[in-house]
Amino acid sequence: MAKLVEVKEVSFSYEKNSPIVFEDINFSIEKGDVLCILGPNGTGKTTLIKTLNGLHKVNSGLVLLNGEDINNLSFNDIAKLVGYIPQGHIPSFPFTVFDVVLMGRAPYVNLTSSPREEDKEIAINALKTLGIEDLKDKTYTNLSGGEHQLVFLARVLAQEPDLLILDEPTNHLDFGNQIKLLEIIEQLSNLGLAVIMSSHYPDHAFLAANKVAIMKDKSFIDFGSPEDVLTEENLNKAYGIDVNLIELENNRKICVPLKTDLELVMTNYSKKYSKD
Ligand SMILES: Nc1ncnc2c1ncn2[C@@H]1O[C@H](COP(=O)(O)OP(=O)(O)OP(=O)(O)O)[C@@H](O)[C@H]1O
């Protein structure tokens, strides 16, 4: 059986003669996998993610969804397979939260017909799953950043995709909601949904992912299980800081970044901001 996502020898640059963002990327994702893509700012995580939902076309190589070249799939075909939450999306129209979530059913609803009762039930269920049914009648544009994020997630759940692609999904979420979101991701993946998310938090990969990729210098410097990939050495290579990995009693690992020696860079300012 074909893999849900296969990425083969993929390279990308924004313009014909502009620098390559990444090259020779290879990986695959199956049902129920959660892949966390880590890497420093500007390494190409968002760009890579956009090649997996048809928003960017690769320069060379292949992206296959369920064995089919993504270039041969229509926008609607991709929308039935892939639910995507972009980074920092800005809501523009004052729809109700319920209507925003119902829009997730668009790939299944004929343009000229209204949503069916079944679609409305699916939308309500998505709100219930995330524990935000009480936001149903609120105006989407009036919500907080974290509430937008959860409502957008409800909308892509209503889309009933096989793959969720989440670009820094815990942005804007409070301490508790970050963990709740990771638990929701874990539970959905146990049901068979696949998830690809980018993140700036290696700890989030330990909490929710079974695969991790670290992107740096136009490629993956490592890909595999969190235990194999999230080493102090790899995290130092990726972020240029020392990191201690600490194992808690319940076998859970956490990453603790150590302080850097920034005083060297700050010497020019020491006179101006002298406390004396
Ligand atoms: N529309 C664009 N046109 C040209 N270059 C772009 C465009 N979007 C991004 N880039 C460049 O592509 C590179 C990768 O950007 P990308 O946003 O994919 O990185 P990222 O790893 O997601 O970063 P971050 O962690 O900061 O969100 C960067 O050098 C960026 O400046």
UniProtKB/TrEMBL annotation:
- SUPFAM superfamilies on file: P-loop containing nucleoside triphosphate hydrolases (SSF52540)
Domain ABC transporter: where?
5-242
Record field: transmembrane: none
PROSITE patterns the UniProt entry points to: ABC_TRANSPORTER_2
Keywords assigned by UniProt? ATP-binding, Nucleotide-binding, Transport
The record ties this protein, via InterPro entries, to: AAA+_ATPase, ABC_transporter-like_ATP-bd, Metal_Ion_Import_ABC, P-loop_NTPase
- SMART domains attached to this UniProt entry: AAA
Provide the GO MF annotations for this entry.
ATP binding; ATP hydrolysis activity
Which Pfam family name is an example for this entry? ABC_tran
- Protein's name according to its UniProt entry: Iron ABC transporter ATP-binding protein
Q: Which organism is it from?
A: Methanobrevibacter olleyae
